[in-house]
Amino acid sequence: MARRVRFGWLGPLIVAVGTAVAGFGLWIMMKNKPVPGVVIDEIKLDDDKAMIRVRSEASGTRAFVELHVGGDLKWQALVPPYGGRPGVPGIAWSDKVVMVRVVRNDRAEVFALAMQDASKLGGIHLAPDKGPIKRDTEGPVTLTDHVRSYELVSGEGWSQIVGVSLDLGKILWKRDLSPAAIESGGIEGGFVWVQQAGAKRWFNVFSGKEDRSVDKIGPPPQTGLPPLAPSGPDADMPAPKPL
Fold first, then answer.
1. In the sheet that 142-144 helps form, which strands lie side by side, from edge to edge?
2. 131 in a domain, yes or no?
3. Could you give the count of Cα atoms lying within 13 Å of 143 in the half-sphere of its Cβ?
4. 108-121: pLDDT as tens digits
5. Looking at the whole model, is its pTM more than 0.85?
């Protein structure tokens, strides 16, 4: 007859150790759980009741993107380091998508989140054939007409504008700019414009084709003034002959 082995207190001890290990693992997870930090930016949507709020990560470099409607938090998403700055948004949106400008490995990207529930729809690398980007630029980062976003990206010796479809989630066009600092930008009458060194360049929002007409960029600069015709009582007198 086989001898029956009794574990005695060993069974409860194993259970207690397992419980302690599980509890410690849960504590580690809770301790390392990302926590929202200070507010970086707030962008009001089409109506004043809805707002996108961007927060830093309290103990990290990532960012939280939040949708608030009527004062209530609808969703919150954790994304890589935010590519915008206070007062210079890196956010574009339509009724279906929120697109967030982010930076990873010193390269610019955009993350697309569903407006309804913040589920990630995809991501796009901007200017992948260029070098590392500059983070301390002065001009705008993202412009939007809520159909497309126009991403302005700069690095050492280069700048580029990239048109992205919000709902399709793909690059529509891109154009190289001069290496000068991007000072400002905007959207007017079917064109997106960028100002560098005091001069504006205009690009069609659908195709990215540049419009260099006089209506957009003005007449060519004058290099001098034409001579004035003589006037006054001596206008008809011949010039004196040299002696």
1. 142-144, 148-155, 158-165, 170-177
2. yes
3. 20
4. 999 999 999 999 99
5. no
Residue 51 CA to residue 35 CA, distance in Å, equals 20
Q: What is the CATH number of the domain that holds 173?
A: 2.130.10.10
What is the spatial distance between Cα 156 and Cα 13, in angstroms, rounded to a whole number?
63
As given in the structure block, the two tokens for residue 178 are 């001069």
Is 243 among the domain residues? Answer: no
pLDDT interval class at 16 (50, 70, 90): low
What total of structural domains would you count in the chain? 1
Whether 26 is covered by a domain: the verdict is no
Dmax of the chain from CA atoms?
149
For residue 163, what pLDDT band results from cuts at 50, 70 and 90?
A: very high
Backbone angles phi, psi at 124, to 5 degrees: -135, 135
Alpha-carbon distance values, 165 to 50, 53, 129, 171 (Å): 22, 22, 20, 6
pLDDT in tens, 110-156: 999 999 999 999 999 999 999 999 988 889 999 999 999 999 999 99
| Residue 88 DSSP symbol | B
State how far the Cα of 61 lies from the Cα of 149, in Å rounded to an integer.
Answer: 24
| Structural domain boundaries, residue 210 | 35-217
